[in-house]
Amino acid sequence: VGLQLCLWSFDMLRISFGETITDRSYALLTDPALTQSYIDNALIPMVEALDGHPALIGWEIFNEAEGMSDVFGWDFNRHVPIEDIQRFVNRTAGAIRRADPDVPITNGVWSFFALTDRPTARQSAARLNPERLEAIRRDLSVHYRTEVSLDETRRVYDLLHSGGNQNYYRDDRLIAAGGDPDGTLDYYNVHYYEWGGTPISPFHHDKQFWGLDKPLVVGEFYMGEGQDGNDNAVYGVPYEELFTNLYEAGYAGGLGWQWYNFPVSAEGVVNWPRMLENMATMAETYPADVTLFLGLRINAFRAFPEDIEAGQESMLSWVVSGASSVSIDGEPVDSLSSRVVAPNVTTTYTLEAISRADPSEVIVENVTINVLEPNQVNRALAQAATASTIETCCGVARTPGRAVDGNPNTRWSSEWEDGLADANPDDEWLAVDLGLAFEVERIVLDWEAAYGRDYDLWTSLDGRNWTTVHEERGSDGGRDEIVLSEPVMARYVRMQGVARATEFGYSLWEFEVYGLVSPLQPPAVQLTLPYEGAIVAPGAEVSIEAIASDPDGSVTSVELLANDTPLSEKTMPPYATTWDAVPAGTNQLTARVTDNDGLIVDSAPYPVYAYDIAGYTRYEVEAGATDGDATAQVSPGSSGRFILILGPTGTVTLPVDVATAGTYLVTLRYRVGVGEESIRTVRVNDGPAMPLRFNGTGGVWLDRGMELVLDAGTNFIALGTGTASLDLDVATVSPQPVVVSTADDTASLAFSLGQSYPNPARATTTLAYTLDAASPVRLDVFDVTGRLVTTLVDAEQASGTHTVRFDTRGLASGVYVYRLQATSGVQTRRLLVVR
Fold first, then answer.
1. For residue 235, what are the CA distances in angstroms to 111, 199, 223, 275?
2. Distance CA 564, CA 579 (A)
């Protein structure tokens, strides 16, 4: 049992306690001399008495002190200036730190409104329907054990949703209030209940969203309370996934909450069994990360994979607490470590731990690695998996790797919701790279409830050219085991959906592939010239070169193709040719190799950009915001006299401006070291990080192109850390999109509302619509509960196509609906906001 000891609560100023108590508490908070008397005569003796206690997790100064503050305070409390609360936190935290520097200090904050400087979505109580307002009032009354009136509920709700947010417990603000440089927090602690909706929900935002510089614990929350109309979820996140949701979103801890004598004095669901269920899920899902300090204990001892064939490797890993010594098969090892083993026969490994407190106490645990016949080994286990789409609507993203992780409790799911899925949610796929070519004999699909009624199984040697090896029609789900009539040589295996059995996406617990290593292995081919993403002039002559090899034979020929058109075929190295008159625009190069066994493999598509960039808008890279190992250096002949040198840990973020949303050609002038290449990530605004390869002749300045989707206005292009150093000089951006984001067809006007772009939206998105005649126009955005988020347009507008930029950065992740109303009708569409 671990305790986070809370010293004070907003209750210290509860009016019903009477003036004797509230006068005393008010003085303690506002009079510095009395605060110091409390510290000297009560606080420090408590801290010293508990110094080193094994159950002490941390000290919590206040529970929801905002409830008695002059900013957020409840009517049932006397109010005190927020500055006095900050001063009290600063002075007491500093005293605790000096008395016992080993125990962390925190403060329980009632919502993110008082813990982040980042703006969040706002809504007035006037827009709540009566049932929703009454539900909030009832929830607050139960939570605070007093009868909260409807008027007070409206007042506080409007107060919260009218002003800006502020982190009152930031280091500099606490020190400014109390003057104690030691009086800061070690981690933040926030509470959340469903009356706050998704804008301030930790279950719908990653920890990074709040812009906080300390670990963040969610210190109170219900495991589903029904404010959103569902007792078993928190705005779409099932209660079974609340703890894992917080863990995977980067939070430092989660503490479910309920009254000790529930359900006598409260309403809602019984929370504590759900907390236990979530804790068990955490221990099962992340055994190496969850350590229970219960004296001498083997917290985890496992092998991965447990099933191998002779000659393969497995990883033993273990975590032991409370031990003076630990050994595996008699050999001393650390309490937390791992080891690679490669047994040739089924082998049991024995871990033994001796108690630190009592040397006579010894515990033992065994793990067995099964050495199977080769055709019984799952070749897809822990291999690289990709998918057409990923379900993001409901809690943790169902990524493809979850279907090949060997864990029957995790799954991949394809996207299926309107506004999130692509045009055809039946046409989705999951593929796995087996790493080598195998003679595939058997494929197993372990379906979740949302299964594929009709699907095909495809195989490939290169992940680009596919062959159908099985067609399944009329599956009833469960565990589908497909035995091929003859083994098929393949490195890549893919489930290609044809028709879903339910309204939801395809959902697989596990995707397994069985077969023997093929005696034949496919050749490999890679383009080396021009360098990846090269910028060339339209009509230029370009040298193309590739390298190829075959692990079990010889290369027969290499064919070089541009935009799928053959340029040349070579039977001997060098595999090179000249590409005459490169067409303007974005081009794709491919190399195709054939080996002496007749196996054919294509290289990955290789972009080459033929544009005249002389008139592009220029940005000096060294003027961007840098972090890590990044240094500006004078360099004669550079664009702006300076260049930026990024070490492997260096990053740079560059603001660029464009007038119209669309896909732009962005270039970076760069230089790599001799014999080096730098693999970096590039991110636009809050979008996903995409890998970017910088290669070429070492020590020579080159231009690297990339097509990036930009919003109208200012965009932030971030270049991440890399595998090697990279020198940068100047960036350029095309003056117009090379691919326009919305159609501009005014030949015949029809009333229509277009899909937002980009969708999903991470920062801003553009909404386009067409009016067939002049009309009053209203364009509203709602959340999935039907609550109005904002009105984007409310005006008379002329016929034609109109666009509106919508800034989503203050919204929670989730699905939103936007509705266009005009004389010609009403149309709605959905958009997804992600963080």
1. 17, 11, 11, 18
2. 13
Structure tokens at 651: 């990053």
Residue listed under structure tokens 């926030």: 190
Q: Which residue has the higher pLDDT, 288 or 734?
A: 734
Give this prediction's pTM: 0.57
Alpha-carbon distance of 283 to 247, in angstroms, equals 12
| Sheet strands side by side (includes 825-833) | 788-797, 775-783, 814-822, 825-833
Preceding peptide of 760 cis, ω within 30°: yes
DSSP 16: G
CB neighbour class for 197 (10 Å; exposed up to 12, middle 13-18, buried from 19): buried
Give 547's strand partners.
526
Query: Residue 321 has what pLDDT?
Result: 85
CA distances from 559 to 245, 474, 550, 553, 562 (A): 49, 42, 15, 18, 10
Q: Which of 612, 644, 638 is nearest to 625 (CA)?
A: 644
Q: What is the number of other CB atoms lying within 10 angstroms of the CB of residue 826?
A: 11
d(CA 800, CA 804): 13
- 16-26 mean pLDDT: 92
Cβ contact 85:108 at 8 Å: no
**Residue 93, token pair as written in the block:** 């935290």
Predicted pLDDT at 742: 39
Of the two residues 646 and 636, the one the predictor is more confident about is: 646
**Higher confidence at residue 678 or residue 121?**
678
Cα 637 from chain centre? 41
- Supply 721's token pair: 């850390």
Between β-strands 452-460 and 429-447, what pairing exists: parallel, antiparallel or unpaired?
unpaired
- Contacts of residue 753, defined as CB under 8 A and 6 or more positions apart, other chains included, come to 767, 769, 818, 820, 827, 828, 829
Q: What are the percentages of helix, strand and coil residues in the chain, rounded to 5?
A: 15, 40, 40
**Which stretch of DSSP H or E encloses residue 695?**
none
Residues 6 or more apart in contact with residue 807 via CB below 8 angstroms: 763, 764
Q: What is the DSSP string of 318-329?
A: EEEESEEEEEET
What is the residue type of 417? E
CA distance 528 to 830: 44
**Coil vs helix vs strand at 324:** strand
| Angle, in degrees to the nearest 10, between helices 82-99 and 19-30 | 70
Helices within 229-337 (DSSP H only): 242-248, 272-285
- The pLDDT, as a whole number, for residue 830 is 73
Question: ω before 574 within 30° of 0 (cis)?
Answer: yes
Backbone angles phi and psi of 111, in degrees to 5: -170, 170
Each residue of 553-610: pLDDT tens digit? 999 999 999 988 999 999 999 999 999 999 999 999 999 999 999 999 999 888 999 9
User: Beta partners for 500?
Assistant: 452
Contacts of 73 (CB under 8 A, 6+ apart): 10, 66, 67, 79, 80
183: amino acid identity, one letter: G
* Residue whose entry in the numeric block shows the structure tokens 């939070």: 251
- 315 HSE (CA, 13 A, CB side): 7
**DSSP code of residue 65:** G
CA distances, 571 to each of 311, 548, 558, 808 (Å): 37, 11, 6, 55
Q: What mean pLDDT do residues 668-677 have?
A: 92
Average pLDDT, the chain: 88
Phi, psi of 124 (to 5 degrees): -85, 155
